[in-house]
Amino acid sequence: MGTVVTIAHLARQGGGLARLAVLLAVASFGCRLGAAPPERIVLVTIDTLRADHVGCYGYARAHTPTLDRLAAEGVRYEVALSPVPLTLPSHTTIMTGLDPDQHGVRHNSVFSLDPGVPTLAERLRARGYATAAFIGAFVLDRRFGLARGFDLYDDQLGGRRSSLVGFAERRAGEVTDSFERWLATAPPRFFVWLHYYDAHASYDPPEGFKLSFPYDLYSGEIAYVDAQLGRALEALSARFDPAGTLVLVTSDHGESLGEHGELSHSYGVYEATQRVPLVARGPGFTGGRVAHELARLADVTPTLLAEAGAEPISGASGRDLRGRGSGEPAYHETLATHLDFGWAALFALRGDRWKYIRAPRPELYDLAADPKELANVAADHPDVVRELAAALDARLSQARPLAMRDALSSDDRARLEALGYVVPAPARVGSDLSGPDPKDRIGALAALERADRLADAGHFADAYAALNAVEDAGPALEASRAAYALNAGLAADAERHAREALRAEPDRPEYRLILAASLETQGRYGDAADAFRAAADADAKAPAPWNGLGRVREATGDPRGAADAYEHALSCRPGDAEATWRLAAIRIAAGDVAGGRALLAAAPDPPAVDPALRAGAALLAAGDPDAAATELERALGSGSVPLALASPTAAVLEAGGHLEAAQRVREAALRQSPDDWQRKNEVAWGLALLGRERDRALALARDAVEQSEGAVAALDTLATVQLLRAEMDQVLRTTDGALARAGSLERPHLLYLRARALSASGRRSEARAALAQALAAAPAPGERWRQDARELRVELASNAPPG
Fold first, then answer.
1. Are 770 and 751 in contact (CB under 8 A)?
2. If pLDDT is split at 50, 70 and 90, which confidence band does 100 have?
3. Nearest 10 degrees: CA dihedral of 194, 199, 203, 208?
4. CB–CB of 738/719 below 8 Å?
């Protein structure tokens, strides 16, 4: 008969009741002592997911069946906490078991992980697991250090962005697609990390989810990610036995939806941004249990390493979740307040009841009585404040020294800053993290967040106005003002704000680039060239200043000098997209069509429409409209087409026969400027070419004629729509009026329309005369009507009845 172990017996052994408690805690999570490690470990991080918007955490309006099923079959941690409301630092904690004060990554973009800090993937690979990661956004690009230990680190994103000023990203469906392609040939023993970024602002779920959550797009994004996670797990279960797979799902941080005046995250450490879901299912995590002890993101790596039987990471602040809780409070911080704006950094400790936030005016919250942190009770409990402040002092005294490893190039910083994104400067990092209390600057923060959202919708003038209402801005907000003014077409204002920012921080090459762009936009090419050269001197490895010099030289009639500048940009960064596209355009325009097309064939997708339009126009002039449209359409995935470029972009697409793409550009421009007669006219023209929505096309064309007081271009479109509607008498009246004021470039198409109407009316002799005049004019590139005109000429020359 086996040995009977009683509670009393265990209590008498070494460790006594404490050891008993540990054993009981382990037993409650599936009796894993001596069990084989899982064959597969799947870590899922859903960016920006607050716990109280998930069904299994009590949110009635949630549609998260995948997460809810994992919780029902596994273990759900009721209170799981993020150390920092920033994607890169928080994921670094998840991947190392170290809090930010220990691993040293304190902000997005401008820090990277020290190569000497071991990672979860390294440890699991050493244990014999194949490793792969599928990343949803640039903020976790391999340059920031988390790719170490992964056999495959798939961070190929494309051009989509979470917002106009945000990071490049790809949708959850694309992440799952990439995972499934890898899974088809995956070995049976692996560690996989899936990162989904969709719930990050701005909220733009796919159409079906947008319709299901019309007033809560954040929840629509969450529902979409849940569906894609479900698809990934179904594919995994179809290939491998689920019993051998451990799945752990969490988030890097939550999202403030207006709590404490914050509209997203990064600048506060309240529960809305720090409390995240944490659910695990698989070996060691079964039974639908709910764990009520505090869990932290730093606990993820120790737990997974222990479950896999891998070497732990020395000094990790996290613990194995299968054991008894340590009782230590969770640590929170955000340095973004200081690094972005010069305000005080925030540090916090959070236990089961008390939460202490170190700020110029300290905060203390009794979470048991006040879970929404509405009443600061620091003055009522000075002893608690002193105790927690001392504990925080002791912890921070052991923190890793601040050392910014600027993995973000000045070009990347300049691109983000040129759109209004606040990016901290390396020079600003030091041991002094003091400054104004962020609570007192919440108005400035709210204005910046409103401005970002206005800019996402293309309302740059309104975004600029929102920032102009903020007092005591500082250089970062001055740079944002400059960027929004520039995008709003207020180049002189942009110049003024850029100069103000440079007065405070004269060594920032990104600010110099914004200044140079504002001068370029004003047509002050000499001053712009000087500013671009100054930016190049400040950062010799950045291609952006040389691309700017190339644009200035093109604008002043110096294509050879422009080509030299673009080649210099390519020496700084081989394959730079803007330099490649613009250099290709110059070569095509100079007659080296083959050389230019070879460059385009190897080029990455263009970073914006402008350089692609330049190349497309060159191909069109070289007599290849199809190639022009094909190359230009590659740019449409890089973001919205600026209003000033919408007309030429649509024209090149139309010339190459890409009518649907051209119409999408025209419709987007009309949405941006709904009262502009030219936008109405172009949409009506596109509808006529596509042969649809004839009533809408007629209404838009008539509005354009009326608003423009009979502009020839508007009359031409109206006649085209009338011809489509077989209103031949109307076509003749409209073209009569237009021809009376048309110039030599406008007459040929009007005469062609008139010929078509005369032919359809049986007036063949008059039709032939009008058509002959139309075809006598020299053709312009991309005139698609001429082929139809030549066919009509053959028809009129025969005895066939009019068609």
1. yes
2. very high
3. 70
4. yes
- pLDDT tens digits for 387-436? 999 999 999 999 998 876 555 555 555 554 443 445 555 444 456 789 89
Tokens linked to 582 = 């613009």
What burial class does residue 592 get, using C-beta atoms within 10 Å of its C-beta: 0-12 exposed, 13-18 middle, 19+ buried? Answer: middle
Q: How far apart are CA 250 and CA 422, in angstroms?
A: 27
- Strand ordering across the sheet containing 80-81: 275-276, 80-81, 295-296
| Cβ-contact 143, 157 below 8 angstroms | no
**Distance between CA atoms of residues 738 and 717, nearest Å:** 11
- CB-based contact 680:703 (threshold 8 Å): yes
190-196 and 40-46 beta bridge pairing: parallel
Which residues, including other chains, have CB under 8 Å from residue 651's CB and lie 6 or more apart?
662, 782
CA–CA distance, 363 with 360 (Å, rounded to integer): 9
Q: Which amino acid is at 40?
A: R
In the sheet with 354-358, reading across from the earlier edge strand, the strands are 330-334, 346-350, 354-358, 363-366
pLDDT at 102: 95
- How far apart (Å, rounded) are the C-alpha atoms in residues 541 and 712? 50
Pairing of strands 40-46, 354-358: unpaired
The residue-averaged pLDDT of 612-627 equals 85
- CA 76 to chain CA mean position, Å: 30
Tens-digit pLDDT profile for residues 253-311: 999 999 998 988 999 999 999 999 999 999 999 999 999 999 999 999 999 999 999 99
Which string of DSSP letters, residue by residue, matches 178-218?
HHHHHHTT--SSEEEEEEE-TTSSSP---HHHHHHSTT-HH
Ordered strands of the 278-281 beta sheet:
152-154, 130-134, 190-196, 40-46, 245-250, 278-281, 75-77, 289-291
What H or E segment, with its residue span, contains residue 237? helix 217-239
Percent of the chain with pLDDT over 70: 89
The mean per-residue pLDDT over the stretch 323-331 comes to 81
- Three-class secondary structure assignment of 253-289: CCCCCCHHHCCCCCCCCCHHHHEECEEEEECCECCCE
Helix ranges, 78-187 (H): 87-96, 100-103, 120-126, 172-183
Q: Which two tokens stand for residue 685?
A: 């023209």
For 275, phi then psi, to 5°, come to -95, 125
Sign of CA dihedral 260, 261, 262, 266: negative
Residue 326 neighbours by CB distance under 10 Å = 13
Average pLDDT of the residues in 108-119: 91
